[in-house]
Amino acid sequence: MSFAYAMVAVPREDVATVGNDGLWYRILTPDGIPVGHGRREITARADGREIATIIEIRIREAHHGMIRASQRTVAREDRSGRVISVVDDSWTGGARARIEAAISGDIATITRQSGSDRRTVSLTLPKDVRFDGGDMLLRGWNPLERPRLTFDQFNAGAMTVDHIVIQAVGEADAEGRFTAIR
Predict the structure, then answer these.
(1) Kindly report the CA angle at 18 between 129 and 79, in degrees rounded to 5?
(2) Residues in contact with 94: Cβ distance below 8 Å, sequence separation at least 6, in sequence order
């Protein structure tokens, strides 16, 4: 399962917090109602590093009540910073799926395992595909100079590459902060 974020604030202390150990943020509806949270953790290893993104969303459905959906995606990088694998575990209610992607050059070999299915596909990756959700681009993004930020992002959960567009909305507040929609 993949989650689409309804709204991302860039940066707002009550929505996102960046620390030495990663990024913590709340997930909001377009009306500003919190529906979940996420975090990014970076762990140094002797052979590179791991970047883990953990997301939890609580959804209330009329016929099923509250459903908890969570996702943990871990990207492993070699010493040079090149992504060599991505493992994505997701849970929705009682259903679980695991996706493992081995990255070699511009090819991702992706295997998806769920309770009733196992399949493997190969995907050719675009030259500048990102594995970081655009975090490094966002850190240097100036919405005054370029209100729209676009990039290609590897999506392990969907076994594809997504074209991401982040658009600044409205004017900056008194402290120079912007709201952006992804």
Answers:
(1) 45
(2) none
153 neighbors 133 (Cβ within 8 angstroms): yes
Query: Distance between CA atoms of 70 and 38, rounded to whole angstroms?
Result: 9
pLDDT of the residue at 6: 38
Q: Decide: 123 and 136 in contact? Cβ < 8 Å.
A: no
Tell me the pairing of strands 8-10 and 118-124: unpaired
In 3D, which of 152, 161, 71, 150 has the Cα closest to residue 107? 161
Interatomic CA distance for residues 111 and 118, integer angstroms: 7
Higher pLDDT, 158 or 105: 105
Q: Which residue has the tokens 């992706």?
A: 110
Q: Using 50, 70 and 90 to split pLDDT, how confident is the model at 102?
A: very high
pLDDT (tens digit, 9 = 90+) per residue, 62-76? Answer: 887 888 899 999 999
**Residues 6+ positions from 21 with CB-CB distance below 8 Å:** 41, 42
Helix (H) or strand (E) holding 155: strand 148-155
Residues in the chain: 182
Give the sign of the dihedral formed by CA 148, CA 153, CA 156, CA 159: positive
Q: What is the pLDDT of residue 8?
A: 41
User: Which residue, among 127, 103, 126, 122, has the nearest Cα to 112 in the 3D structure?
Assistant: 122
